[in-house]
UDP-N-acetylmuramoyl-tripeptide--D-alanyl-D-alanine ligase
Amino acid sequence: MDHITVRHIVEAVSGTLLCGDADTELKHISIDSRSMRGADLFVPLIGEKSDAHRFLVQAMDNGAAAALTSEHEAAPEGFHGALIQVKDTKLALQTIGRCLRARLSIPLVGITGSVGKTTTREMVAAALSAKYKTFKTPANHNSQIGVPLTISEISENDEIGVLELGMSEPGEMAVIAEIAAVDSAVMTNIGVTHIENLGSRENILKEKLHIQDGMKAGGILFVNGDNDMLSTVHAKAGCHTVRYGLGADNDYRAEDLSYPDGFPSFTMVHGEVRVPVKLTVMGEHNVMNALAALAVADAYGVPLADAAEKLLEFGGFKNRQQIYHKNGYTIVDDTYNASPDSMKAAIGVLSSLPAGRRIAVLADMKELGENTIQFHREVGAFLAEKPVDILVVYGELAQSIAEGAKRVKPDLHIVSFEEDEKEDMLDWLDAQIGEGDAVLFKGSNSMKLGETASRFISVEKTPTSSGGK
């Protein structure tokens, strides 16, 4: 935050200053009493299991300059700094986010979708950085709480911002969109992530389209024209629709797609403009993400050749299809989270890798609702059509992946482990993974498959031939 004082916050939230100096300058907002960077406003949130108001004094001791409270009429013992009384700290945080957004003059690009939000955010930011000082959502601050925190970090030196906007329940995107008030938005796809909470893909689409709620007239909605749910979507009245994808009807499309060394290479085509593009992240899905990034960059006046050059610098990030070459074998760590679409994309990456054997270690996909068994079986059937030599399934739901694969390819080598057999799985993998193998680890974050992947990324061992010891 720039040029923000306690007085500004009090006025924004219609609060009462219980103590402290109204002219105290504030630079950051924190919801973690243990983490302060100096001149912070601490916002204590009330959760299902804990109430952060009990950490008010700790927050001040750790460097906060001010705090909100909805539970005090006066400063608690030991408190020092400014204390602002509000009715609801979460709502106050969102109000602060809206007020800070209103002070910004730079354009903001919103990114949403069932899968691929974070990678697309990173690619869009990379492409825009060819011309602008570009701000992007830090970490995964994409929620009703995270978006206000994100906006508070945009500085007066930034020239454009890329915000990831996520949702998992009805009504959430409308709240976030009002806070962010983006100037343009990207919708990567509509899948089945969070379908357990939203009921259907149609409901997910309806919810995601609320990203336009704060968009001004003349804004642009960039949509994946190859996605069955987005191919016929149009921006709200007064705004424009731009489609990207592999299909010939898209405004920005990829031609001459090939995979030298496993990495995508293609020609981006827009009207008469043709730009060669190479990526250092694998998979056809990243071609789609790159097309979105180039479409956004073009809309904001970035020379497409320069934007494409910046995309070449993007190499992905931890637990999202990161590829490691260790001990003579290759590990694909894609354990951040999982949905049917992202599972299939990861299997596609594994299939494209040169390897003696390809081994897929797949765990449960969560929050898929009443059709979860069918979704897992579909992933298995998809895998069975690919050049995968061994399927390892981990968890109760993942057994359905094995079922789906077995139906299509009865002779596929499948090994199954329940969730309480993690050590057995580790021992089996340790004995089996050998030189020349390529191994994919993929599952919902709650399955903690990243810990297993890390074991094989970090441990040095004497290479063995495929098949293990």
Notes: The two ends are 57 Å apart (CA to CA).
